[in-house]
Design a protein that fits this description.
Blueprint: H1 3-7, H2 12-23, E1 30-34, H3 38-53, H4 68-74, E2 81-84, H5 105-113, E3 123-128, H6 135-146, E4 152-158, H7 166-170, E5 173-176, H8 189-249, H9 253-297, H10 316-319, H11 323-341, H12 346-355, H13 358-366
Parallel strand pairs: 1-4, 1-5, 2-3, 3-4
């Protein structure tokens, strides 16, 4: 296995596209790496830095992995590599008081603007956990993103691009390196997909009726999951109780009652545990639905998302709206997930979630 293959394990397809762009002289000036694995985001950022800066890359755009530049990038010692990441207790990337305030956006931008230590060397600016940039830091960075210094490539790595300004996202080439490939097979998965797809019609004029139809369908899926969990667990426990019946019959009346009460409590707990498991799978599905539509709205090819199969009955591109609306939809989904995990009234939570999509239709008419 070559150095490049080893360093790009887990995102081979994306790395091939980046090195091909480099070989053709078409690297973008800014990239947004969207991934759910912190280690993979770091590897991808450094691999892209090597693709951009290696002076001995072959005709296919593959960095050599042996020159001083490749070795320095790997160890983060490359003199033209500038890295910014959250460092404070608040885990925020601050704008900073001035360019001497180390670890802040102003400090980072000042180093990018300085003259290179050697002619022809490409500057690499990397921001890890870019979603932790505060509003001031994002606006300061946007100015450099709009007019980057010569021979500079900017790389943002994040698990949550929805936290970034749309103007930042629109100026970056988005590369998805998501690894989550959950197989969704819970009862009612197709009905859940139909309900979520229908929510998109609310903004297009479907209105409250479409929202309530989706709410009823999602609540129906939740009810079915609870019933399925109870059915599965109680059938298993009934077989277990049959085997214990002979033993329980040998106990005194008070002991029998105590033992049966304990078994009933254990069975109820097992039912609850199975219900939580199935609910978690549904909530993961809801999040994946809106997170992936948001990625597609940013320009990610539907073939590159982690779970394209969840749209198997739909044309994913037709479900996508503009990044701002797609980001709002993702935020709503995340709020619904939090609400349901805190055991709020699920019918009210689901209804409020679905009806919130009608706001987009109102905003659209107002605009």
């Amino acid at each position: 296995m070559s150095w490049f293959e080893e360093k790009t394990r887990g995102f081979e397809r994306q790395a091939d596209a980046l090195r091909a762009a480099s070989a053709a002289g078409r690297l973008a000036h800014a990239y947004l790496l969207h991934g759910d694995d912190e280690g993979l985001r770091e590897s991808a950022a450094l691999a892209l830095a090597a693709i951009a800066a290696c002076p001995a890359a072959d005709s296919r755009g593959i960095p050599c992995g042996e020159c001083s530049v490749c070795r320095q990038i790997e160890s983060r010692a490359y003199p033209e590599l500038f890295v910014l990441a959250p460092v404070s207790k608040s885990r925020q990337i601050r704008i900073g008081k001035d360019d001497r305030d180390e670890g802040t956006m102003r400090w980072f931008l000042e180093r990018l603007s300085m003259t290179s230590t050697a002619p022809g060397m490409r500057k690499i600016g990397v921001i890890f956990d870019a979603d932790r940039m505060g509003p001031g830091a994002q606006n300061a960075f946007l100015k450099t993103l709009e007019e980057p210094p010569d021979k500079t490539i900017l790389i943002l790595a994040t698990a949550n691009p929805a936290a970034l300004l749309p103007t930042i996202i629109s100026r970056c080439h988005v590369v998805s390196i998501l690894t989550n490939r959950v197989e969704y097979g819970f009862p009612g998965v197709d009905e859940a997909a139909e309900a979520l797809a229908r929510l998109g019609s609310c903004a297009a004029g479907g209105g409250l009726r479409a929202a309530m139809e989706s709410a009823e369908e999602l609540i129906g899926v939740l009810d079915a999951l609870e019933e399925k969990a109870e059915e599965n667990v109680r059938a298993s426990w009934e077989r277990r109780l049959e085997k214990l019946e002979e033993f329980i019959a040998t106990l005194s009346p008070s002991e029998r009652k105590t033992r049966k009460d304990a078994l009933k409590d254990a069975c109820d707990a097992a039912v609850k545990g199975e219900q939580v498991k199935l609910l978690s799978e549904l909530l993961s599905f809801v999040h994946a639905w809106f997170a992936q539509l948001y990625q597609i709205s940013l320009g990610v090819d539907p073939a590159e998302i982690a779970n394209p199969e969840i749209y198997r009955h739909f044309d994913a591109r037709k479900l996508v709206r503009d990044p701002r609306a797609a980001g709002r939809a993702l935020a709503r989904a995340e709020k619904l997930i939090d609400d349901l995990r805190w055991n709020v009234n699920r019918k009210l939570a689901v209804s409020a979630f679905c009806c919130s999509f009608v706001e987009d239709a109102v905003d659209k008419r107002a605009g």
